[in-house]
Amino acid sequence: MPDLLATSRRLREHAIRRATLLVDERRARCNIKTFVQRAASANVILRPHFKTHQSAKVAQWFGDAGVTRATVSSLGQARYFADHGWQDLTLAMGANPREVADYDDLAARIDLGLLVDHPHTIAALASGLNHPVGCWLDCDTGYGRTGVPWHDTDRLHDLVSLIEDAPNLTFRGLLTHAGHGYVAEDPANTFSQTRLRLQEAHTVLKRGLLSAGDTPGFATTRDWSGLDEARPGNFVFYDLMQLEADICTADQLACAVACPVIGVYPERQEAVIHAGAVHLSREALQDGSFGRLLGLGEIGFEGLLPGWELERLSQEHGILKAIGDQARAELVNLRPGNLVLVAPVHSCLTCEQFDCYQTLAGETLPRYHRESF
Amino acid sequence: MPDLLATSRRLREHAIRRATLLVDERRARCNIKTFVQRAASANVILRPHFKTHQSAKVAQWFGDAGVTRATVSSLGQARYFADHGWQDLTLAMGANPREVADYDDLAARIDLGLLVDHPHTIAALASGLNHPVGCWLDCDTGYGRTGVPWHDTDRLHDLVSLIEDAPNLTFRGLLTHAGHGYVAEDPANTFSQTRLRLQEAHTVLKRGLLSAGDTPGFATTRDWSGLDEARPGNFVFYDLMQLEADICTADQLACAVACPVIGVYPERQEAVIHAGAVHLSREALQDGSFGRLLGLGEIGFEGLLPGWELERLSQEHGILKAIGDQARAELVNLRPGNLVLVAPVHSCLTCEQFDCYQTLAGETLPRYHRESF
Fold it and tell me: Scanning A210, B212, B216, B258, which has the fewest C-beta atoms within 10 Å of its C-beta?
């Protein structure tokens, strides 16, 4: 059974003093292995999204499992992973015409894929690139964020023609991110619809690969047929949003933030930690809470501690609520200086708030740090 | 009149390629001057909170206006500003017993104030400090986050006695953060109540200074009587939350994020920028939106562009909605590669996402970067 005070003791043994991002390497490697095996079974290329972890060391865990291609969401991430030996990267954000010279520099040294959905962007790439780049056409299969709607065959045709006519651009295929799968009642159903819509567009275009990327779809469905490439990312760590949506189990949660208690208020069943929006992000669960507490056992993370909710957040403070008898009994024994382990609501956003991870074995794993200009 | 495409042109002249945090120095200095003058008129010490800007250069603008004391919200910030010459800092977060040795190092070189509300924390400081530290007692005047309730006179007395008995701790007074003023119908009324409650506690204790800190209270009220010290912070830049609550005017907004457009979708009255939760934070206005667009004129930021809302955010994407005829007409002329200027919902959280500011004069202002361990 996970235990609040035993967790605090173990975190002290890790010499933790302030909010620290921990990763359970065993769990993360297990999550990676599961997806690598599923992709192999499905005969689909796994090009995992590295925006969740943004760490060359975590990327190496993917490498150890046989992964050689990855997806990123910014030029800076692409450069970082290229610097760490990744030779085949897709930048799965709509290309930014203001960064064409930077893309060109990168394309000189790796196999770079870019994403477009606008003639102006294709023209900017066509005129600015001196090195070959793979070009994906962004296809909107229902999320409604970016891309050409899958049924708009005229625009799909026109844009593919523009890509094919552009020097240094090679049409790779249709790429979609079915982000609505994250909030769908039935993510497997959304995934199935996504695949059908991509195939519908492909039937018209008659060329190119089909690439889809979202953890909920790939995690809940074994049938990946019709796809050539899978780009999920969150699965490496998962988080409470995925748990709430039944996309993962609690024993797959692989990152969490160790936080010091700085206030204890039994009269209102609350404790306060020095960890707020700047550490955890303001992403909330459906009930409005910002996190739950995990246990830390002998060999790694344990389950969720019942009755503890991170109820409110300000810039640097988090307010923990003890609900029910067990949590309230634990609260009475809590002291400033104790440490708790907060499971994040959305691991991609929480990890972004830290420069590095600490593994439970005490290793420091640096992360890419976003450049401001 | 603020103009979308003229703003994009001017941002291009600033050589902006990707999401960049801009500060309008003239506006920020003007905001600082206003508060310095009000504090002088009220005969109250201004100890501004530097957690909003976290920049030694911006701190110098305060220094230029005569400010010599400041407030911070982490040990790391305190070290950073001490390294930049600030000799009198209050760390206005409940002290963390795990950082006592670090506080002691800092207290060896500056005049350090700490905040407590628990006997265990006072005991940890008493046993671990070798250098004198000023000790504030955290008083809860109604926010309900941290501190001893103002009416709990027994606990206030007991804790003051513990502080006074501890070697190297000097009781400074009662410190409160009336954070509920940020969401109050009438912040001036909350402020008045806060002052009365602090004075009520002071009448019982008969010693120490009274320190309060929140921008809404100090910005909406000229009568600061009863207080010794003011610790507002947000006022240096303000933001859309403050504007929505009538605490500032649009011409006081002093920071914004320049962002590249990467997608344009006139059929759904939307455009997409490469700036998401990792750039802007997920803090939302009451209508659920994540930002508005500002104009950039010849001499600095202009007003809000009517009809533009940052309607949705994902990790790296922001979805702009054009509402009304003017914004829709502007949308038709928008292209990937254009630049827009997003006024943040909560400037403290948005600025935290960047390493540095760029002034409109082209100067780079580095920010404190949070240490991960």
Answer: A210
Query: How far does B175 lie from chain A, in Å, by closest CA?
Result: 15
Q: What is the largest CA-CA distance in chain B?
A: 70
Q: Which B positions 286-315 lie with beta carbon below 8 A of chain A?
A: 312, 314-315
Same domain membership, residue B201 and residue B128: yes
Q: What is the pLDDT of residue A372?
A: 67
pTM of the predicted protein model: 0.97
Contact B81, B54 (CB under 8 A): no
Identify which of B295, B303, B301, B285 has the alpha carbon closest to the alpha carbon of residue B330.
Answer: B295
- Separation CA B120–CA B106 (nearest Å): 21
Position A182 pLDDT exceeds 90: no
Distance in angstroms (rounded) separating the CA atoms of residues A103 and A85:
17
Q: What is the pLDDT of residues A291-332, one digit of tens each?
A: 999 999 999 999 999 999 999 999 999 999 999 999 999 999
A-chain CB neighbours of B277 within 8 Å are 281, 283, 349
The model's pLDDT over A143-154, given as tens digits with 9 standing for 90+, comes to 999 999 999 999
A336 touches B: beta carbon within 8 Å = yes
Instruction: State whether B16 and B65 are in the same domain.
Output: no
Q: For residue A73, what pLDDT is reported?
A: 97
Under 8 Å between Cβ of A341 and A295: yes
Q: Rounded CA gap, B7 and B343, in Å?
A: 13
| Residue B54's CATH number | 3.20.20.10
A120 and A33 co-located in one domain: yes
Count of H helices and E strands in chain B?
A: 13, 18
